[in-house]
Amino acid sequence: MRTTITSIALLIGNRASAQPADEDKAKITVGGYFEEYYQLDAQDPSNRLTNLRGFDNRSRTFTLSNVALEIKGDIGPATGHIIVQWGHTPSTYYLAEPVSPGTPSVDTSDGELWKYVQTATVSAKKSDFVVEAGLFPSPIGPEVFAVKDNWNWSRSNLFFGLPFYHTGATVSHPLGGEWIGKLHVYNGWNSVVDNNGTPSVAVSAGYNVNSTFAQVLYFGGIERPDGSPEGQPWRNLFDAYVQFPVNEVVSLGAQVDAGFEPNRIGTSWWAAGALYAKLAVTDELYAAVRGDYFREHRAENGTLVASPIFWPVEWVAEGTATLAYQPIDHASIRLEYRHDHAADDAYFGGDVVIVPATLTAIPNRTMQDTVTLGVTAWF
Fold first, then answer.
1. What's the pLDDT at 3?
2. 136 contacts: CB under 8 Å, gap ≥ 6
3. 60, 197, 200, 219: most buried by Cβ count inside 10 Å?
């Protein structure tokens, strides 16, 4: 019997040694998340819409914001990554996708086609270089699509105004001192299919050590569609953010973003900033606050005024306070108050006028106040 067991062990050992090395085996990771909320708008708009608010944009109704499924596959130096999604969140941010008409034999490309895809990339590593291509969430700013990875439930005006996603390719390489440099080439702002045929470029340097995150980024390109009265100007964006723990209880963050676009009418420009703070009350409960201000100047020459890049008003600002309770692993309940303010009517309240021909709602408030109760769970 002992001889038989030894022979079997040797046979198993020989078979195991003939198998591919672990790094040559495919590793599949599956994850996902769920987001739902109920919101009360103090201005009680008749259309029950919370305007210019990113994704928590409906009042007095339970709203399924997003259901996302993530699959990541690794084999050797190659990685594939896809996140598919359903809900108000993707339907909202893909409204920015340009429409590229088709023909009887070529499909039209628009937001309805792509809104179910949040991320779809493939990457490969060679030495210290990593090359990645596909559809990416925008690298601009510290906030992300998944509520679970943000301190607040709602997103800042910077997150909502600046680009959400890009299609293209990146190359990254360590710079030393824990910094990673990256070169980006994209179709442009919020463009799975480009609206002008000219790629945009970006360069960034990111830092991620011991819960401290920082990044500086430049993004440049032609973002106006073909045939715009502003012409085809080169738009310049500069962004920087930092997020860090002060101690075991308090964490802080900040983002600044500015840019300009010299076009046929003049020079359009913007400047924005956001501040964040988080206080850990217990292991299960934290409080977070955020405030931001976003100003945009539209070029004008006495006859023409450039179309806005971001907002229908000169500036918007907001203040947010959030309580987040995590009673169990992989689930968070958040209660949030938010006040929005704008330079002119940008929000809704009371009886909202709807233009019959276009079904467009006319903003009639310079402020809005909301209370939101949301739950997110993930695996």
1. 38
2. 119, 121, 165, 166, 167, 168, 170, 186
3. 219
